[in-house]
Amino acid sequence: MKLIEFTPILAPFMVRSRVLHTHRTARGTPPTFGTQMLGLFKKSAPDPKPETPAARTSFLARLKEGLKNTRSQLTGLFAGRKLDESLFEDLESALISADTGMDATTFLLRQLRERARKERLETAEQLKGLLREILAELLAPLEQPDPLDPQAPKKLPQPFVIMLAGVNGAGKTTSIGKLAKLFQHQGRTVLLAAGDTFRAAAREQLIAWGDKNGVAVISQSGGDPAAVIFDAVHAARARNIDILLADTAGRLPTQQHLMEEVRKIKRVIAKADASAPHEVWLVLDANTGQNALNQVRIFDDALGLTGLILTKLDGTAKGGVLAGIAYARKQLAAPRPLAIRYLGVGEGLDDLRPFVASDFVAALLD
């Protein structure tokens, strides 16, 4: 392979391998600045390590801490209260304040009234238990079987291509770094594709995550992001990589030219592998409230989303937006499964965990 000199900005990240290689783009010509790869030689996958009870408990504690304001507001309504109309009115205000949205709030209150009457509930604590049950039922469709579960009997395509999209500032690139660590922990090999060629720091940020995890990064300085990811699919196949995580540039769903570009990226991935991308995930900032519903709708129309990652649940996020998303999917004429794959509760490598509906409801109400 042809050797090229790496650019000075990448020097800090080239400790392990100072050899860079050029690869052909989808049009058969080398990228202007070369396709840069870190950690070229595939390492054997580590043995999968099951999550320990302590780690799970720690994550649940951090999730509860992140949602403590909403939990305090909701649970405080039921303490020493009578089950009367004023309780329902206060609960309506609390749910709306928690970013649940008017439509989902109306649905939850209607269910509560009907079932409380049918079950002849008498106390506020009983109503709290019923709210927990109804919320769990609403969120249950968002908890789908994980196609990447190491215990799943179905053999995955290789490479298994996951395309990630989202608006600027949602935490997409950081989530990719955390996913790389998580999948390595499962005993899988991972490759990253730096498809965000517009934001100056995006490529360097992803390379830094790759360096931290010891994971290869396919990148190009400027140029066509679809070509970078096309090259990455072929590189992953050549090296028998298990999972390829493809980053894309952050974009607002109202920027039609950028939405068309992300559609193009998906089409080009399919040219490299007719079955890919195998998953398309949208990264959402949990603090964006009801705007998250618009993002889900527009990105889903453009890409056919299969999953969501909700980030920043460690700060001022209220959490009710998940109920809003679940209710909006429930109202579709032909509902298609859309899973919440992961929740993020911090900046650490281990602060990303699979979504479990019952755990989330417990963090809100227990």
What features would you describe in this structure?
It is built from 12 helices and 9 strands. The chain has helices at 53-66, 68-75, 85-97, 102-118, 124-139, 172-185, 200-213, 225-238, 256-272, 291-303, 321-330, 357-365, and strands at 36-37, 160-166, 190-195, 216-219, 243-248, 279-285, 307-311, 339-344, 352-354. It has a 9-stranded mixed beta sheet with strand order 1-4-3-5-2-6-7-8-9, sandwiched between helices.
The gist of it:
By secondary structure, the protein is of the alpha/beta class.
The 3D shape can be described as elongated
| Percentage beta strand | 5-15%
Order of H and E elements:
EHHHHHEHEHEHEHEHEHEEH
How far apart are the first and last residues' alpha carbons, in Å? 59 Å
Q: Treating each run of at least 4 consecutive H or I residues as one helix, how many helices?
A: 12
Number of strands: 9
Average pLDDT taken over every residue? 83
Gyration radius (Cα, Å) is 22 Å
How much helical structure, as a percent, in the residues? Answer: 40-55%
Largest sheet: 9 strands, mixed
Strand order of the largest sheet: 1-4-3-5-2-6-7-8-9
**Residue runs with pLDDT of under 50 for 5 or more positions:** 1-45
Helix and strand content put the structural class at alpha/beta
